[in-house]
Amino acid sequence: MPRRQRKTRSGKQSNRPLIRELPILIVVALIIAVVIKTFVVQAFVIPTGSMQDTLEINDKILVNKLVYHFRPIHAGDIVVFNGAGSWNAPTASSGPPPNMLARAYDDTLRKVFDSVGGLFGTPIGQTDYVKRVIGVPGDHVVCCNAQGLITVNGVPVHEQSYLYPGDRPGSHPYGIPGHFNVTVPRGYLWVLGDHRGISDDSRGHEMDPGDGMIPENMVIGRAFLIVWPPSQWRVLPIPATFDQPGITKASSSAASVGRAAALPAGASLRPEAPLLPLAAGFAGAVPLTWLQRRSRVRRSKRRSGDRQSRDGRPAAGTPAARGRRGR
After folding, report:
1. Which end of the chain is more exposed for a tag (fewer CB within 10 A), N or C?
2. Which of 37, 60, 65, 131 is catalytic?
3. What is the Cα–Cα distance from 232 to 84, expressed in whole angstroms?
4. 84 pLDDT exceeds 50?
5. Domain identity same for 191 and 237
């Protein structure tokens, strides 16, 4: 066979596996992205102004979903949580699927499809919120003292660094009381928005299950970084006022276990198509696929050399083979 034809055929053969591996590459990338989104980090977009000026409308934040497996929730943390059952009435269930096959689908493939779909769109009817933790289990939280400050376990909390300009600690929307005196029970959190004048937070849900508190086990994670827009990019630390002695004396249980005022903004979150997990998925899938392909090519060459040796012909590239071509 002419050398040019051999090169053309070998080139086609080497390109075919790469084309066949592209679906595998995409599947591996999606699996890695789903794992990252489910267990490590998730992106959310802020739709209202209840956390201004800390979080602006349409800011995109990253939420660490692992941190509370290693440390308790701290006062001052900005958390994303699911309000179903505490701030939102439980959704009505249509009952179990009529047959075993449908139940098996709901318990397996439907969850997989929902996770993959969450990488590219926004689920309908979600009940996630973002607020700042003011009281953790065991804390006695009062608004306000004679100076107009919130106290936690009797210690005044100086909030000027993160409150919306013009707001005071006791600012509140119309119809929501600004003053409160609560002791946070075990397994719950008391949360407020940074834009107190419009924030629908624990103060506005004292008639709901939990008396305005949110369960620790409904916390999705801690917001730790604003990633969009670039002008807003920054880390979200715990304000220094929450490091005062006495504030942190409470329980350290982990999360795993004015009529003219503006109307309240609940800051219900929209899960954003998380480009970071997708990018990480492809970043992890590409080298894995490349290593797999390289290993397969080496094995193929080794088998080809062994076959030629058994047939009595020297393997391509050996001195004997080069000498035979030169004669």
Report:
1. C
2. 131
3. 30
4. yes
5. yes
Secondary structure element (H or E) that encloses residue 188, with its range: strand 188-192
Give the phi and the psi of residue 39 in degrees, each rounded to 5: -120, -20
CA-wise closest residue to 18 among 303, 298, 268, 289: 289
User: Is 50 tagged catalytic?
Assistant: yes
Q: Report the DSSP pairing between strands 234-235 and 140-143.
A: unpaired
Q: What proportion of the chain, given as a percentage, has pLDDT over 70?
A: 53
Please, where are the H alpha helices in the chain? 3-39, 100-107, 109-117, 275-310, 319-326
Decide: pTM greater than 0.90. no
Provide the Cα torsion 68, 70, 71, 77; round to 10°: -40
Residue whose C-alpha is closest to residue 224's, from 119, 8, 18, 71: 71
C-alpha distances out from residue 189 to 76, 152, 210, 216, 240, Å:
11, 13, 10, 6, 20
Q: Quick one: 235 and 207 in the same domain? A: yes
For residue 224, is it within any domain?
A: yes
Catalytic-labelled residue, pool 50, 86, 199, 268: 50
Indicate if 147 and 183 belong to the same structural domain.
yes
